[in-house]
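#help-structures

NK: newbie question. if I give both the sequence and a SMILES, will the prediction place the ligand too? trying with 2-oxoglutaric acid
OV: yes, paste both and it writes out the complex. here, I ran yours:
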Amino acid sequence: MAVTKRTSSNVLLDTALKNFYSAAEEMGLEEGLVEILSRAERKLCVSIPVTMDDGTVKVFDGYRVQYSTALGPAKGGLRFHPDVTMEECEALAGLMAWKCSLAGIPYGGGKGGVACNPLELSPAEKERITRTFAARIEPLVGAWTDVPAPDVNTGGQEMVWLMDTISKMRGRLEPAIFTGKPISLWGSKGRTQATGRGVATCVRELLKAAGKDVKGSSAIVQGFGNVGTYCALTLVEMGAKVVAISDITGGYYCPDGLDIQKAFEYVTNHPKHLLDGYAQPGLQKMAGEDILYLAADVLCPCALEGAINGKNGAKIQAKFIVEGANGPITPEGDAALPKDILVVPDFLANSGGVVGSYFEWVQDLGGFFWSEEEYNQKLLTLMADNFWRVWNYAKEHKVTMRRAAFLVAIKRVADAVKMRGVFL
Ligand SMILES: NC(=O)C1=CN([C@@H]2O[C@H](COP(=O)(O)OP(=O)(O)OC[C@H]3O[C@@H](n4cnc5c(N)ncnc54)[C@H](O)[C@@H]3O)[C@@H](O)[C@H]2O)C=CC1
Ligand SMILES: O=C(O)CCC(=O)C(=O)O
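OV: that's the protein plus ligand as structure tokens.
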């Protein structure tokens, strides 16, 4: 009996499924496992009624998907964005399953979010949405069942509201259910910076693998939020020149190198954490998309999915792409890229975030906290080791790094499913 392949009108889910099926075929994965691993284990859709500041009631849609728990509790972020759908969450939850597997940490994959526009919400409205969402997904979350974390438009404050609501509902403190919390409330030193630092570490190792030095190289960073800012700051610390950055307000280009520390301070103090109005000598403002097509050694797409696609892939001039965002290149984009471009795939490059979350969870469970030096040393060693594991596998099997990462990751999850006998 041949497998009936799932498809989706959601680009991200369709991409995730295509990548999974073609890797599964290449590794000769047995049909039963293909069927199991091409579906999420559990999908929860909730409605979130909220009284807005003007007294009206609005109902938002929220989601939490547990794609796989074969290797451990479901793990992955919560996104607040108008485009959040069940399909998007399923795709991102699947990616989390492969990410945790590839990183060698004891987690499955999950993802969730709320379809809302945080730019249009007051802090009080955001708090009410977050707390009601927490109450509605309460049956799923737990330190040994499902451990959410920040993603697009969520951060430490949202994690505290979530933790506090669940703790009140259960009548006991539940710090290990959410990661990405502030340091003062059971968070970990280093977690905020972890994803971006990990992306920059992959840039450094990739350049090393190609016989080049990160020092003196030039980089473009798309998206100037959590991942993009710390990626850019770390690249500068490593001696690279960041020539262009962008966010939803547009592109900011300076051929001699941007003052990333200054731009970081600007967005930190901006009421909506945006680059709008940022200025420095030699700065050229341009359309956000156009920074993708500038000449530079490395391009780090750290915004949203689908940034590089069949329509614009051929225009990329950078020689190396390190994917900070989840799914920034569609399969059509991959095919359209100039042939000599090397790509480090998302679920390797941005795994510093979930590895950092794992360290936070370990500290919360033990109630004993590490120094930032210890955290970074463990994180960056693991990131570099994982980079080389995938690089060497790709060379040995003559495949792209994306395909190599899928083959390694799927095998670990499939072996766990087989050993646990989940499909009796
Ligand atoms: N925060 C984390 O620890 C992790 C995040 N990721 C992924 O990284 C990506 C970014 O996440 P965060 O930095 O956490 O989100 P964020 O909300 O902190 O920042 C997103 C940034 O992208 C910008 N942006 C959105 N659309 C854009 C566009 N069309 N062009 C240019 N900029 C645009 C926003 O203005 C903002 O600066 C997402 O794909 C997320 O899933 C992956 C691993 C971990
Ligand atoms: O820190 C985590 O648990 C997950 C972060 C995340 O959502 C991701 O890696 O895409």
